[in-house]
Specification:
UBQ-conj_enz_E2-bd_prot, alpha+beta, E3 ubiquitin-protein ligase E3D, 376 residues, EC 2.3.2.26, 5 helices
């Protein structure tokens, strides 16, 4: 049980300053606000229960609604959208789907090794570990036929054994001789994009003649005996990004991120504040249907109306906005870059903006940053 801050949107008719009486009732399963002109009841999911006696800091803010602090009990049997389980899905036959339309990209691939890739700066650190010349110089990490390598926001797979299967569309590719050791490799430019045959969404990029990078936000990997899971696009993108942020912050103590497109442009600056928030959508009532979008810092819950979430600060960098701050973040080695398809970066920015708009005006900004919640 933890204390959290809640916000109840204003009633349909804004109370006049110093004039309208308001009756507020708090039960373990609901909050009700009555005025002479209106009644709004917010019913909570079954797994979330309030402690009415813990109510503190009750105040009505014009334009915002009702602010208060109290404690809750919440169950912690959360189920996240699965990106890819390294332990349980290794050695299983898996099928890769386009998340947007369900088109099969790779069918019945048996993965014998599912391994995390080192950080993007691993090559620069080898010199600190070895007292002799770098043994890994000019030896890129490419997966073998039954491998899947997992990066920060992508999967690397070998498509050599899938030549007989329907494949995603590959744009014309230029080959470039980089060195005598590397022979011929594919230079990842715009013409290396991997496109879904059905919906034409960019799924990834070709990295060599046999290795393909698939972005986590575009691909669902399922055991072959399971059907394609239909997940709303916005929900899937939020969950993948939120889980990436949490994993990177835990593994590398990194809390600031740049979200950049495959074209190298920075679209969003993200600052992870916490990963233990809960977003609750009101179940409504017969007399008033409204949203209850924010319950912070409580235990995890799993429901169609209650979502684990991460709280982030963000700055958009499109149309030359925040150029100086973006440049400063890009040059800061403590800030981690996540690369996604450019269209997905814009999707994420729209999700953040829409989420920010659901918050009361007084909670939408922290210093110069905008506030948002990404559901996990």
């Amino acid at each position: 049980m933890r204390r959290y801050e809640a916000w109840i949107p204003p009633t349909k008719r804004e109370p006049k300053e110093g004039g309208t009486p308001m009756d507020i009732s708090i039960t373990p399963s609901s909050l009700q606000v009555k005025t002479p002109a209106d009644c709004t009841e917010l019913r909570l999911p079954a797994e979330v229960r309030l402690v009415p006696s813990s109510c503190r800091g009750l105040q009505y803010v014009a334009g915002d609604g009702l602010h208060l602090r109290l404690q809750v009990w919440a169950e912690s049997n959360a189920k996240l959208i699965s990106m890819f389980n390294q332990s349980s899905q290794a050695r299983e036959c898996c099928t890769f789907y386009c998340q947007s339309c369900g088109e099969v990209v790779i069918r019945d691939r048996k993965l014998l090794r599912v391994l995390p890739l080192p950080s993007e700066n691993w090559g620069a650190l080898v010199g600190e570990w070895c007292c002799h010349p770098d043994p890994f110089a000019n030896k890129p990490l490419h997966p073998q036929e039954n491998d899947c390598f997992i990066g920060d926001s992508f999967f690397l797979v070998n498509l050599r054994s899938d030549l007989w299967q329907p494949r995603p569309e590959l744009a014309p590719v230029e080959t470039h001789c980089l060195s005598s050791e590397n022979h011929f490799k594919l230079k990842p430019k715009a013409n290396t994009k991997v496109i879904c045959k059905r919906c034409k969404v960019m799924l990834g990029e070709t990295m060599s003649s046999e290795t393909t990078k698939f972005y986590m936000t575009e691909i669902i990997i399922q055991p072959s005996e399971r059907n394609f899971p239909i997940i709303p696009r916005s929900q899937f993108v939020q969950s993948v990004i939120a889980q990436c942020l949490v994993e990177l912050s835990t593994a590398r103590s990194t809390f600031r991120f740049t979200i950049q497109g495959h074209d190298g442009k920075v679209y969003i600056l993200l600052w992870l504040l916490n990963s233990d928030s809960l977003v609750i959508e009101s179940l409504g009532s017969s007399r008033g249907i409204t949203k209850f979008p924010l319950l912070e810092d409580i235990l995890k819950a799993d429901s169609s109306s209650a979502w684990n979430a991460v709280k982030v600060l963000y700055q958009p960098c499109v149309k030359s906005r925040n150029e100086k701050l973006s440049s400063a973040w890009e040059s800061d080695i403590s800030i981690h870059a996540l690369t996604l398809p450019s269209a997905t970066c814009l999707e994420l920015l729209l999700i953040l903006s829409r989420n920010n708009a659901t918050l009361p005006p007084s909670l939408r900004y922290m210093n110069s940053f905008q506030v948002a919640f990404l559901k996990m």
